[in-house]
Model the fold of this input.
Amino acid sequence: MTAAAPPSRIRKRNTKAILAAALDVFSTEGFRGATLDQIAEAAALSKPNLLYYFPSKEAVYLALLGSALEEWLDPLRAIDPGGEPVAEMLAYIRAKLAMSRSHARESRLFAGEVLRGAPHIHEVLHGPLRELVDEKAALIAGWMAAGRLAPSDPHHLIFSIWALTQHYADFAPQVQAVLGDGRDPIAEGQSFAETLFRRMLTP
Done:
């Protein structure tokens, strides 16, 4: 059986252009407001050319969501069972805040999907996402039981980290408006979050 040929350079380039354009469109217009015409125009491609790579708007959207979710979960996967617990949790917080700076549109795309009831990723949330969170919550619970972290509910600890760190991406205009010009919300947020969680987690 002949192996499938690797994607051509043109295919890779056009797929990347489509996904980048779609991220701009979906993150501002939402799934319902976005159109294939808008995405094609932003990608500098014709609509028929776009449909050659993705058969529908939903296919583009699902590709973006899948990629965004994988990237957002990478820092959670990186929590090291062999590491020093407080340091591992603070590193996770720093990584999440860094992604709120570099992947703000992806965060807003994901938030919009969840606010609509997660119709496109319901199975992912109930399957792979839940399994990963349960795995890390069990690790954190073990650290707490061993006296290496102050006790709390591990799942809600993870939720609170998500809420704090992704707020800086999902509500960036509000945060910047309140802080005013000349201030760096992410840098200030990191200093605050590290102080908050260090005090909370240190036995």
